[in-house]
Structure formats: C-alpha cells, structure tokens
Design brief:
The chain is mainly α and 449 residues long. The protein has 16 helices and no strands.
Length: 449
Amino acid sequence: MLKHPSDLPAPGSIAPQPIPASLDPLAEELVVERTPPQQAEVGSLYIWLQVLGQFGVFIAFITPIAISLSIRLAELAPGHEEYLGFITGSGALVVMLTGPLLGVLSDRTRTRLGRRRPFMIAGTLLGVVSLVVMALAPNPFVLGFGWILAQLGWGQVLGNLQISMADKLPESQRGKVAGLTGFVTQIAPVFGVVIAGFVSGDPLLLFLIPGAVGVFFVTLFVVFIKEEDTRGRVFDERLSVPVLFSKYIYNPRKYPDFSWVWLGRSLFYFGLTLNTTFTAFFFASRLGVEVAEVAPIIATLGLFGIMATTLGAIGGGFLSDRLRRRRVFVLGGATLFAIGAVLMALASDIPMLYTGSLITSVGIGMFSAVDQALLLDVLPERDTSAGRFMGIFGFAISIPQAVAPLIAPAFLAIGAAASGDKNYTLLYLIAAGFTMLGGFAALRVKSVR
C-alpha cells in the first residue's frame, strides 16, 4: 500500500543516511512491514477454486453454528440453550491451543504435494468424521466432542486455504479475492440453513448434506491447484519442543501493524460471536416460535442478506484495491454491524428486526473482506512462516469464540429473574460496542492506508 505523506522526506530536504542493518534493531521490522516481496498475479482458476473451496468449508463447518447444533441441542437437552455456549467455546479453546502448532507444521511439511494440501486432505477426512459424531450424538457431551473434531478438521482446511492466499496473492489482488471469499463465507451459512430447513427432522442428513458440499469443493482445489514439491526444503533450526512452544508467541513491538490488526479482529469477533451464537434462540424468543421452527425463518431472511453481504464484501474489497485504502473500509464495516446490532436489540416489530439483520450483513461482509486483505498486507515473514503467523492470528478469532459464549450466559441472565426471559437486548448492545472497538483498532495501522 502507499505510505502516508508523513513517511516521506519534505521537499528539498536531505534524507538521512540509512543505518547499517547490523546496527539497526528496527531494520528487520521495516523490511517485513513496509517492503514485502512482490508476488506474481494469480490466474482466474486459482481465484475461483479458492472462493469455492472456502464456500464449501463454511457450508460444512458453519452450518452447525448457524442452526444444526441448536436443533440437536434442543432435542438432547430441552431448555438448556446455555449448553450451546459451552460447546462452541470448548471447540474454539482447543483450536486456540493447537493453531500455531499446526501452522508451524504446515510451514515445515515436506511432501510431493507441497505444504498446504496434505493438511487440507487430512482435515477434510476428520471433518467428515466430526459431522457423523454430531449427527448421532446421544447426549450434549458427545455433541460437544463432535464439534471439537469439526474445529480441528474443517478448521485446518480453512486455515490452509487462507495460508495459500498468503503464499500466492500479490497486493494488487488481495482486496478483490478477500472480497469474494468474504462474500461466500458469509452466504454459505445461509445456504446451510436452507438445507437444514428441508432436512431438520433427520439428524444425519442435517449434518452430512452440508458436509458433502464441503468435500466436493475442497477436492476441486486440492486436485487442480498444484503446489511446489517441498521434499528438498531445508530449515535453519531443528523443530524441538522448546522451539515449537516459542512459535506460539512473538514480539508485538517488532510487528506493531500486525498486532493492531490482530487486536481489531479479536474485538470484532468477540462482538460477532456474542451476536451470532444465540441467533436461533434470539429469533425464537422475539418471534414467539419453537427453535426448530426458526430455520426456515432465518433462511428466508438470509436470502435477502445475500444481497446485503455482496454489497459489503465485494464492494468493500474491490474498492479497497482500487482506492488503495483499507482502514476506512474496516471501520465502516464495524460501524454498520454495530448499527444493525443495536436495531435488532431494540426491535419492537419484525420489520425492524429484519432491517437490523440486513445492516449487520453489510457490515460483516465489508469488515471480513477488507480486514482479511489488511492482514495479508501486514503479515510478517510471509515466505518462511506464513502458517505460523496465520496460526497466531487465528487466536484473534478462536479466543473470542472461546470466551464470548462462556460469558454470554451471564449477560443473558441479567434481569432474567424478573422478566422470566433471557436478556438478549443487553447481549446485542454489548456486541455492538465490541465491534466498534474492533473498527477503531484498524486506524492504528501505519504501513497501510
């Protein structure tokens, strides 16, 4: 991205002589954050298979959060929707602990298939197993175990698809591709909910039909997108247990822009998780219907949300490339989401509820697309440790996904004794506040406009 005018010497001034890299402790940071290596543009085949791959993963992976887990939990433990927070939070916690480790292993994988594809294949297989476990779970504990397997399996597929973007995409294509992938990852759960609405009475089909879509599109990516043979790669250090643990942390002062993007994503996803985890129960409460009846209602709304998400994700992504601006679009997406969440929290009728939901769709699309491009712009050590830093960045999602559902029941309980209902209004207002903080954090990034 272009530098700020403040980064350039004044007209007619004499620029200071550079300090030798061996004497300048900030030299490595400046090289990494301000002069990333140039990458050749990728072809349309890569772009569309990347988009379809992420679309498939999200149908298989996010449909359970959107509706399937709620339906199964309502069958296994009626009246205990708080268990959903414990299930989703536990899965996110496991991913948080394993993310950087698996990222480092991906960076160092030496196979004829390359570094990323073996993890996609293994993750897909584990993901299918997880769907069967959740579909046939006899109790909430087994349901939660299945979700942990899903996080490990499908999460690895998604993670390595995104690492592949860091490996291959040049700066000029990051906003566009992030916009397209951001769009499909937001509309994928809508398609998943539509599927769930037709097969909600059959637990096995409820999970396996979305899973089949994921397997199909991931297979296309693995088969047609080739990677360099990495069997001859040599690494500077041996991968011992202490070295592995050291890869879980980094010095935020060394990569400040990466750190601000990390914080912004974390705050936004904390609010987003508060908003989305209990969507089925929230709609059931406001509309006065049973949870099992919510799927077609959310699906109908979701179909209109597709257009809203398209506007936010593709519009924001393409414009951020054309205008060479990222931060203003990240803040704009967070602001739109917050406005929509407030409208939903205060909704007194169905039109207001639907309006708020559509505005949040625009905000999610814009934030997710442009923030992903911003991440790729500031990613440290792209050539050697993209998997490691993408794994660390995964903390920005997995920590909120682990913590938010665990503390959300406390917000829901405030005032519940008096009203006899869960306090979804407070929950959605708090969600709006956190997403706004996430947008403001992006303004602290210096190397990208």
